[in-house]
Structures are given as C-alpha cells and as structure tokens.
Write a structure and sequence with these properties.
Elements (H helix, E strand, L loop, with lengths): L10 H8 L5 H19 L5 H8 L3 H8 L2 H12 L3 H8 L7 H26 L14 H9 L11 H16 L8 H12 L2 E2 L4 E2 L1
Antiparallel strand pairs: 1-2
C-alpha cells in the first residue's frame, strides 16, 4: 500500500491504489443520492445529460447503471419512499433527553422526511403511492414506544394515537402553502394533544 509521499516514485501504481472502482450497487446508490435533489426540482422533464452532470458521471455510465432514464426515475422513487433511514434516525434519539427535546426531534425528522417525499410526488407526478408512512404500518408507534419509554405515564392517549398525532402534524406542515410554523410550535401542538394536564399547575405535564 503506497503512502501519499511515495506517489511520485510510481504514479501509475499510486493511482491504481487510490482509484478503486465502486461496486455496481454502490455506484447505483451514489448516483441516486446525487440526482434526487435534481429530480425533486425538475421532475420527469430533466434530461439524461442533466442527471449525468448532477451525478458527476458520463451519460454512458448512467445508462450502464440503470439502462435508461425511466428505470433510474423508478429506482429514485423507491429510494424516496424508503422509510428505513427515517426509522434509523428516530431510533438514534437519546432516550435520556427531556421529553420536549425528544418530541421536537421526532417532529423535525418526520417533517423533513415528508417534505422531501411531497416535493418528489409533485415534481414527478406520482399518483400511485401514499406520500408518507402508511398509517397501517406500526413501525412508527413501535419506535416511539422506545423513544418515550420513560414518559408513558404522561400520555393521555394510547401510543398508537401519539404516533397518529405526530404523523398528522408533520404531514400537514410538510405540504406546500401551509404556514411555516417553527418546530417548537409544532411539537408544542402535539404535546397539547397527547399529554395529561397537570392538576397542580394547570398546564400539560
């Protein structure tokens, strides 16, 4: 293995050591990551050349990876509707944080995820897909059960309803032309709907 200081002794060997080609699946993933912002901006009217430029590859590389533009767009749609990264981010929330901070983080993550989906649905004119985590999918509720494990006694509603409240507020705030409320305002709105009132302070616990 050559070190940077040895590059000039054998340029070709150094270049081969540094420029390792990506595996086909890794290349596809890298291309998708690079073109998603462009697809959300321009939709299906984007050209293959623009996609290649966004990915920093030649058009030939684009076609070798995906075959044609429509296949790339189809793969991008699957990536856009993949909630796995969202679930991972939610699971990474520090459960030792105060409830208010955890709730705001949940709202921020879910809202951002849904904003990207809504933008793609509109730009790509997607009609056959639900624009957010399926209400029948209990993954969100199961994750929130762990995130709020120390706060369950403060809830006035079941955990499934907590998940529905968070999903509803995050989705509504992700829609275009909606008021741009701050994340603290949105999480406060959710808190008022899910927490028991504190009888001593007249506020929510």
């Amino acid at each position: 293995m050559l070190k940077a200081g040895e590059a000039f002794t054998d340029v070709r060997e150094f270049s081969r050591a540094r420029a390792k080609p990506l595996a086909p699946e890794d290349r596809r993933d890298a291309i998708l990551d690079a073109v998603l912002p462009l697809l959300r901006e321009k939709g299906r009217d984007v050209s293959s050349r623009q996609l290649a430029e966004a990915a920093g590859v030649a058009e030939g590389t684009l076609f070798r990876a995906f075959g044609d533009k429509e296949t790339l767009i189809a793969a991008a749609i699957e990536r856009i509707f993949d909630h796995t990264p969202l679930w991972a981010s939610l699971r990474a929330i520090d459960t030792a944080d105060p409830f208010e901070r955890k709730l705001e983080t949940v709202v921020v993550l879910l809202r951002g995820h849904l904003q990207h989906i809504v933008a793609a649905v509109m730009a790509l004119r997607i009609e056959e897909r639900h624009p957010g985590p399926d209400p029948e999918d209990r993954q969100l509720a199961l994750i929130l059960r762990d995130v709020f494990a120390d706060d369950i006694d403060r809830f006035a509603v079941p955990l499934d309803v907590v998940a529905d409240y968070v999903r509803m507020v995050a989705f509504a705030s992700a829609l275009p032309l909606m008021p741009n409320f701050g994340d603290d305002v949105l999480s406060g709105l959710v808190a008022r709907g899910i927490l028991l009132p504190d009888p001593l302070e007249g506020q929510f616990r």
